[in-house]
Write a structure and sequence with these properties.
Blueprint lengths: L4 E6 L4 E7 L1 E6 L2 E6 L5 E5 L2 E7 L2 E7 L2 E6 L2 E6 L2 E3 L5 H17 L5 H17 L6
Parallel strand pairs: 1-9
Antiparallel strand pairs: 1-2, 3-4, 3-6, 5-8, 6-7, 7-10, 8-9
């Protein structure tokens, strides 16, 4: 069996996960990455997307809308702006995220318009990845 490492996922509201995993797939701001035991120490920011944690007890997926991941050889800690267990996500959740991102894009100044539009596109794609299309 592959080596395991500690995985922790917290949001401002609560701790969503704390268990051993063999890998974590992270939607990084600079590209998706897969983290396994003995990974080089890294800190990366997150983009909206699906975070997947795979371990001896199976696979769990979470929708995250941003934040940071701190990776070390012994584990990965994710501090998410917002995180929801995939099976708990509703149409209302996706629609709310899209509405917030749309409002942020519309209110963005000239220097932030592209970043806000990318965030909106990432949220729409995240919903599509789990089979929920924004209304």
């Amino acid at each position: 069996m592959a080596d395991t490492m500690q995985f922790d996922l917290v949001s401002p509201e609560r701790r969503l996960a704390s268990f051993g995993v063999t890998e974590v797939q992270i939607p990084g701001a600079d590209g998706d990455m897969t983290v396994m035991a003995d990974h080089a120490s890294t800190i990366t920011s997150l983009r909206p997307g699906v975070l997947t944690a795979t371990g001896p007890d199976g696979t769990r997926q979470y929708l995250v809308t941003g934040g940071f991941a701190e990776i070390s050889p012994n584990g990965t800690s994710v501090l998410a702006e917002r995180a929801i267990l995939r099976e708990d996500v509703t149409q209302a959740d996706i629609d709310g995220m899209v509405a917030e991102a749309t409002a942020a894009r519309d209110a963005a100044g000239p220097d932030a318009t592209d970043a806000a539009a990318k965030t909106l596109a990432d949220i729409i794609a995240m919903g599509g990845e789990i089979g929920i299309t924004a209304s």
